[in-house]
Amino acid sequence: xxxxxxxxxxxxxxxxIKENQAVVMEGEFDVISSFQAGIGNVVAIKGSALTxxxxxxxxxxxxxxxLALDSDMAGDAAxxxxxxxxxxxxLEIRVAxxxxxxxxxxxxxxxxxxxxxxxxxxxxIYDYFISSAVNRFDVTTAYGKKKISDELLPILSQIENSxxxxxxxxxxxxxxxxxxxAIRESMRKNxxxxx
Length: 195
What we know:
By secondary structure, the protein is of the alpha/beta class. It is built from 10 helices and 5 strands; from the N terminus they run αβαβαβαβααβαααα. It has a 5-stranded mixed sheet. Strand 1, helix 2 and strand 2 form a beta-alpha-beta unit. Helix 2 packs parallel to helix 5 and helix 9 crosses helix 10.
């Protein structure tokens, strides 16, 4: 059952405990190559999204997760659901930005030091979401701001810790050059409570 299994955990759990951090990758080859390059605290979700089962398992060994997924997966809706699950479990989640078109296996073969750098410089998850949206949409146009808010407001509304939510409302208001009140009002108007 892929939703409850983490490839490599039997070998890497001691390193995960020592680092208090698990680096989550997509496939077996990503883990094998990374482990051989000296990144010991790695596991793979074997192509599925991060699930409650994965999160429950990881929480036994570490408080922090770094997602080092294929560059096409981090923005995927299934991944976002997994991120929300990990956030609810109060794990610290970061995203390592792997260059477009690469997976950790390719990145580590090209340069083990570079993959280690991506992991070390991983962004907190909500910072990543904001950066990703701003890179894809023109924040100087009304249409770009609409696309960014359509994408980010549902995500920010799921943050349960009000201090963290407030931090990201402020950050988004600054990035979009609008008021925090406008962000809050949009969240109230447009975000339907979960059924």
